[in-house]
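ARCHIVE CARD
Drawer: 12
Card no.: 0347
Subject: one protein chain, sequence and derived structure
Cross-reference: see card 0346
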Amino acid sequence: MGMLVSRKKTRKVRVGKIYIGGDAPVSVQSMTNTRTSDIAATIRQINELEKAGCDIVRVAVPDMESAFAVEKIKKEVSAPVVADIHFDYRLAITAMEKGADKVRINPGNIGSEERVKSVVSCAKERGIPIRIGVNSGSLEKDLLVKYGGITPEALVESALRHVYILEKLNFCDIVISLKATNVPLMIAAYRLISEKVDYPLHVGVTEAGTIYSGTVKSAVGIGALLAMGIGDTIRVSLTGDPLEEIKAGKAILKSLGLYSRGAELISCPTCGRTRINLIKIAEEVEKALENIDKPIKVAVMGCAVNGPGEAREADIGIAGGEGCALLFRHGEIIRKIPEDKIVDELMAEIEKL
């Protein structure tokens, strides 16, 4: 099939060992929900996130203690660390001095031109990019008045204001996000900014909600943009364990053929033709596949209607029969497996691939 989604060419920005934009794959981000000043807990969470497939991790830096903590955190993790800063330019400078790989800050919110200059010169010196993060919930008052509320144009103008401050200082290592809780608004805003700039875009639906509804909302918003070729790094914002954000982010990318690591499971919804306990089998296989890093497609199908066809598309798969299943490898039937052995034998075959 090859790649059906063609991505818009953006500039390439380096964040630690990861690149955003250009020809770099779309990266998945998350944010810790530990107190950043609780260094041990934060390190533990970052390492868990990276193990789950997170490419870039952001930490909140609300105070100096958190800014200083970045130094110790960086020593114990290999994922790039982004410092999330609001209003206080000194926190940005300290976090960068302590080894942050990127800062998220809106230059228009940190005061005088002198302050902005000092943040930019520190970032330049260290080769650290800046993400401008505009949020529908904190749009400037004058833009709300000008546009009569939160509109795609208002979000874009807000972002471009911040971008312009950095460009005036000859700083172009910029990533932009324009997050909104309203999905159509967020899609329209990203489409608009994508026409105006070639900076890489960090895409997400802000405050999307709890795990189920937030995942759906994020998948629609992020997925719609990625399908148009817009988006270089993504964050699924969920009220829950950040590990759930990574799972959702990877699944969104896999669904569009934009994620080449790890196994992809294809399974049927089951119907009256199904004669094996397919739901349980599919859940067990999915769980077992979490630790498999091979870029393979695994099909778990309930019956002989679509089963063999889908299993042929996959690298390996099963199609259910009466209390048993046929095992397919690259479209060839290998053998019959009794129902109680399906998961074990399928996983054993995957190990051999």
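Annotation on reverse: The mean pLDDT is 95. The radius of gyration is 23 Å.
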